Amino acid sequence: MLLLPLKVLNNMSVVAAIKTATVKAIGQLYNVQLQDKDILVNETKPEFEGDYTVVLFAFVKQLKKSPDALGQELGEHLFNQNKELFSGFNVIKGFLNLSIGDAYWVDFLHQQSINASYGQKQHSGKKVMVEYASPNTNKPLHLGHLRNIFLGWSTAETLKASGNEVIKTCIVNDRGIHICKSMIAWQLFANGATPETTGVKGDHFVGDYYVKFNDQYKKEVEELVQGGMSKDEAEKQAPVMKAAQQMLIDWEAGKPEVIELWEKMNSWVYQGFDQTYTTIGSDFDKVYYESNTYLLGKGLVEKGLSKGVFYQKDDGSVWIDLTADGLDEKIVQRRDGTSVYITQDIGLAEQRYEEFKAERNIYVIGDEQNYHMKVLKLICQKLGLPSADGIYHLSYGMVELPTGKMKSREGTVVDADDIVSEMVNIAKQKTEELGKVKDFSADELKELYNTIGLGALKFFLLRVDPKKKMIFNPEESIDFHGFTGPFIQYTHARIKSIIRKLTGDSSQLAEASAIKGELLPLEKALIVALERFPSVIEEAGEELNPSKIAIYVFNLAQTFNSFYTEHSIANAESEEKKQLRLQIAQLTAQVIKTGMGLLGINVPERM
């Protein structure tokens, strides 16, 4: 009698099926009740025979069996009771290696080859918020923002595919001294120019004046130093800096002409941002603005004082002492009663929790803010805020160019729009060199170049573990034969072409009866890899690491190309084999499309 019927098996992953079968077997053999989570299952090492390995050492003492004896008894029971799942087993030094029968893999393939949602879970009811982008309105989005945006967007989509309800949010830093610098420079140097009159995209237009401010500031500081002033004093007394500081005071006081200029220049930037977001395929469910949130948290300061979480110094400023937690003392309110960034962040965390009741609040922020995020979570916990435990910092390393770091104030940053444009141009050049798109219309070519260029950019920035710093090289990212997005896109287009030629309609595949012979090694390798897809999505979601998906999809594309080099589909040994391989191709294309979609990357039907 089967412990697990085949239909039940294919409603769970093979690893889950092995765990369930092992729990039942141990219960029947030794009258010991375990749970699936107690069973450790790994892929069998290449040097041993088998597909999956059950690690037995955790049960040896409890079951009073030697590892080899336990493995032998358990293996025989699993094999005898689950012959539609297991085709054999062996025991090596306390490891039970299990071989999965071809019938399981073939039945899995038949069930999933036309399942467009394969790999994605139903909603679990859990709610997660992901915050990313967080741009300043004094400059355009740049290459560093792109890593942040792609990482945040992909993490959100992966969590969604893992069964969570996800809210994508953005906080726009639209106030402060850096904004006033652009405004002062515009007043000094623009002569009334606008994005419309100059033909310059709004965020680039405002960013140019931020650079002009810095140029003017350095010039004035140098002049004051030459006049005998110390550098420190000159930096404080430079007229342009004092003007920016006064403008910030006027803004906070609500001076009408300052607010009007602020709104006008910010509107130019928002239009520019929206154009870029549309181009790169990013979106948000809710956008917050610092100008609306910077006063949040003041009530929490009073609450913290009354609870003894904060303390007040003689000058009236309010602090928290975190030295016992391995950190330091942190100011939460200035002596004049104004809030600091951490106070705003505490207030916003509380507001967002009240608004959405998300169980987790994931902040996608560079690793230079690691300390700030530790302090934020700790203060929220000490205040007893319901949002506190759900705060998670998805910390990522900076992206640099081969020439080194980028600096906004010096105008050495690579703007997002420029890098996207460069990628599309490189895609055009590389595609034309291959010479396979002569039958494409002009519109089709434009769409293809955008798809390849943007796909190359996203894949290159997402294929690296978020924690690692990275160097972005445009030429390397678009190699059609390397660890790149275009290689995977080309593999998808190749598969779709094969299916079109053999079926005329890629959505209509003939039913193949259960295969009577053995699966060939590369056939099995592809099916096994495809069966892992749901667990890869789950793992990427749990670890908040889209590179898991990028690496998986790349390896899948490589495996398919190896398979297709060795085994013909059109001239398969039998009609049965032809249909089996068509189903393998169909599911491979579907998984590539879904996996790349979770990275925000489109895959063309032909290229």
Strand content: 5-15%
Q: Helix count, per DSSP?
A: 24
CATH superfamily of the domain at 420-598: Isoleucyl-tRNA Synthetase, Domain 1
Mean pLDDT comes to 91
Q: What would you call the structural class?
A: alpha/beta
Name of the CATH architecture of the domain at 420-598: Orthogonal Bundle
Q: Taking Cα atoms only, what radius of gyration do you get, to the nearest Å?
A: 30 Å
- Which CATH class of the domain at 420-598 is shown? Mainly Alpha
Q: How would you classify the quaternary structure?
A: single chain
Would you count the extended β strands for me?
Answer: 14
Main sheet summary = 5 strands, parallel
Q: What this model shows, in words?
A:
This protein has 607 residues and is an alpha/beta fold. It has 24 helices and 14 strands. Strand 8 and strand 9 (318-321) form a beta hairpin. The chain starts with 5 loop residues before the first helix and ends in a 9-residue tail after the last helix. The relative contact order is 0.10. The model is unreliable at 1-10 (pLDDT under 50).
